[in-house]
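This part of the workshop introduces the protein records we will be handling. A record pairs a protein's sequence with a compact description of its fold. Backbone structure tokens are a discrete shorthand for how the chain folds in space. The question running through the whole workshop is how a given chain folds. The record below serves as our worked example for the rest of this section.
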Amino acid sequence: MTPESAETVALKALAFIAADSDELERLLARTGLTPETLRSQAGDPALLGGVLDFLLEQDDRLLAFCQDAGLAPEETTRARSRLPGGAGEMVLP
């Protein structure tokens, strides 16, 4: 998977999370980001890695995203490994 493909998966994950106000609140609380910062930095690869970290923290959340996006969970994990901080720690700008 290319870094560009990984970013596309992460942007889909961000849209999926943003569509659920409860999940979005959890993401913002977990990262300390404001909605404005999230919007303005949505294309930052490090932030996108953090979005995938959040998604991968819960199997239910991951599986719901994968079903919605038509992806296998392994593809999401592979995408995470191609973005900054892919060793497993959440990295945000």
